[in-house]
Structure formats: C-alpha cells, structure tokens
Specification:
- This protein has about 325 residues and is of the alpha/beta class.
- The protein has 2 domains: about 1-120, Rossmann fold (3-Layer(aba) Sandwich), CATH 3.40.50; about 125-290, Dihydrodipicolinate Reductase, domain 2, CATH 3.30.360.10.
- It has helices spanning about 15-20, 35-45, 55-60, 75-85, 100-115, 130-140, 175-190, 290-300, 310-329; strands at about 1-5, 25-35, 50-55, 65-70, 90-95, 120, 145-155, 195-200, 210-215, 220-225, 235-240, 245-250, 265-270, 275-280.
- The strands form 2 sheets. The protein has an 8-stranded mixed sheet with strand order 8-9-10-7-11-12-13-14. A 6-stranded parallel sheet has the order 3-2-1-4-5-6, with helices on both faces.
- The longest helix has 17 residues, at about 175-190.
Length: about 325
C-alpha cells in the first residue's frame, strides 16, 4: 500500500489525487499538511483524510508516507522536492515544475542522488487520447511534420490572492497554461525549441497575462499561444501539419470533460479522408479522468513496471524553454 501525503490543502488535490486514490486498492491518502491547523482539519474531514500536519516539513519527515503530492505554488516546489528526496520520498510535483530551469535542475539532481522518484504532473500526458495522438504523429501517418502549433486560452479572474497573478509565486499564463502545449509540442516533435520571437501581454505587476511565441523544433516551425486575461476565449488544442495530411487534438488538457457531450475531438485527415475520434466513439476507459491515468502511471512506476514519462531531464528542458520564451519577450 502506497501512502500519500498532500502538501497544501489545495483546490486541485481532490480531483488530482484524492478521488483517484479512493478508487484504487494500492494507495491511500494518509495525511494533509497546511500551515493553518483549522484549515487542515476542515479539509481532512471533508475529504476523508485520516491525519493532518501543520507544517510541510513535518509531513515530509513522517516515516509512514511514501509519496508526496506537491500542489503548492511553484515557488515552493524546489525546496520541498529537495527535502523530500533527502527523506527518501517519491514526489508527484504539479506543473510548472519549478520557478526556472536552475531550480528544476536542483530538484532532479537531488532525486537522482537519493535514488527517489520525481514526476511532473502533466496529467494530459498519460491519457489514452494524447497517447493515441502521439502514436499517430510519430507513425508517419500524416508524413513528416511541417508545422505544429499549440494553444491554451482560459480566462482566470484576477482575484485577491490568485497565485497566477503573483510573479514571485510563479504566476503567468505561460507558467500555468502555455506549459501544456509547450510540453505537448516537445513530446510530439522530439526536439527542443529554438525561440525566434515572443510577445507578452503584461499586467501592472509585470506578470505575463498572455504569451505568443514563434519557435523552431529541429527544422519544424512552431507557434505557441496562451492567454488568461479577460479577453481569453476558451481553447486548448494541438494542430500538426504534415507532408501527407493534418491532425488536430482539441480539448487535450481535459479530454474527458472538454465538452459535456463529446469530450475531446481528434481528427486525422490524409488524402481527403478525415477520421474523427471523440469521447462518444472512443473506448469506455477513455472517459476516465487524466488524473486517474496519471496516478495509475505513478503507481506503475513505483512498482517498477514502467519508466516515468515526465520529470528528470524532460522537466528541466520544459523549464529551460519557458525561461527562454519569457526572456525573449
């Protein structure tokens, strides 16, 4: 039985790990840590978590915790991942992995030195819809990739305390939204991007509310867009133009709930023939959440059944690309 501890009484944790764990027999959420004891107790009672801690360090130091889930702001990813490695704990760390590539490198080095697991929570990466899309692109069905683009736009209100609007906590559209299509394009092309130009729409406090960037992956031109401002119209998609055809995966971040009727939409068009896959005509298990597939992947990695798809050098490269895009604008 893998015993899980939560760093932070976060909004994301119930759907990201508490509920998926409750549906399994090989893991359990044992404790949650919050700096507010009253909040920790309310959260634990609401979500059926047996125990609490009032410091993150205390949770990490517990001898009865095997896996740490870190959904704190990015500013607390590095120090706590390093501490977890020093205590021999596996870590599932929410995206973005760190504040920058230097922090990501320190996190990976600490996990490598300790021989512990450190996975980045790009939950879409583990869902069958994206795995199928990846297989189609890499099979050569649409030929050689000639262009790739990715977008993730969703309005995030600028409320008091909203971390996405606080630069020192790791806020910004690229950090919170754009990292998804960036990671997807890295995965699909198998190359790291060279940044040609970038433009950032900034709020008064300097946080990048929107980002548009032109890049080249190997010899493949690419475009990235993300926007969390008032004018943002919801979209998340990856579009690939090949020498033989085109392919597009819409709703890839949350394919199981992108639309209440069809979920994701994936089409592949070659020679004038279009094949369309949606939630309605996909296998039944595709209706499970990305987070359920993510936790299943983490469990299989911890059992030695497979290698991790995220984390390690992959996480460092994603943060390196983010650093360069932010510096280019």
């Amino acid at each position: 039985m893998i015993r899980i501890g939560l760093l932070g009484a976060s909004k994301i944790a119930p759907k990201a790990i508490v509920h998926p764990a409750q549906a399994r027999e090989d893991c359990t959420v044992l404790a949650v840590a919050s700096r507010s004891e009253s909040r920790a107790r309310r959260y634990a009672a609401e979500h059926g978590i047996p125990e609490i801690e009032t410091s993150y360090e205390a949770l990490i130091a517990r001898g009865d915790i095997d896996l740490i889930y870190n959904a704190l702001p990015p500013s607390r990813h590095c120090d706590l991942a390093v501490r977890a490695a020093e205590h021999g704990k596996a870590v599932l760390c929410e995206k973005p992995f760190a504040m920058n590539a230097d922090e990501a490198r320190r996190m990976v080095e600490a996990a490598d030195a300790a021989g512990t697991l450190l996975i980045e929570g790009f939950h879409f990466r583990f869902h069958p819809s994206f795995l199928k899309f990846e297989q189609i692109i890499k099979s050569g069905k649409i030929g050689e990739i000639e262009h790739i683009s990715g977008v993730f736009n969703v309005h995030i209100p600028d409320r008091d305390g909203e971390l996405r609007y606080i630069p020192e906590l790791g806020g910004g559209a690229l950090m919170d939204l754009g990292c998804y299509p960036l990671h997807a394009m890295r995965t699909l092309t198998g190359h790291e991007p060279k940044i040609l130009e970038a433009d950032h729409g900034r709020a008064k406090n300097g946080v990048a509310v929107s980002t548009r960037a032109s890049m080249i992956f190997g010899n493949i031109p690419a475009h990235l867009a993300c926007n969390m401002g008032r004018e943002a119209v919801y979209e998340n998609s990856i579009h690939v133009v090949g020498s033989k055809g085109v392919a597009k995966l819409s709703g890839f971040v949350h394919p199981y709930r992108w639309d209440p009727h069809i979920g994701f939409d994936m089409y592949v068009e070659v020679g004038g023939t279009r094949e369309v896959t949606t939630l309605l005509n996909s296998p039944e298990n595709w209706k499970h959440s990305t987070y359920a597939f993510q936790l299943d992947h983490v469990m299989r990695v911890m059992k030695g059944e497979t290698g991790a798809l995220t984390g390690g050098p992959d996480a460092i490269e994603t943060m390196t690309a983010i650093d360069r895009i932010l510096a280019a604008g």
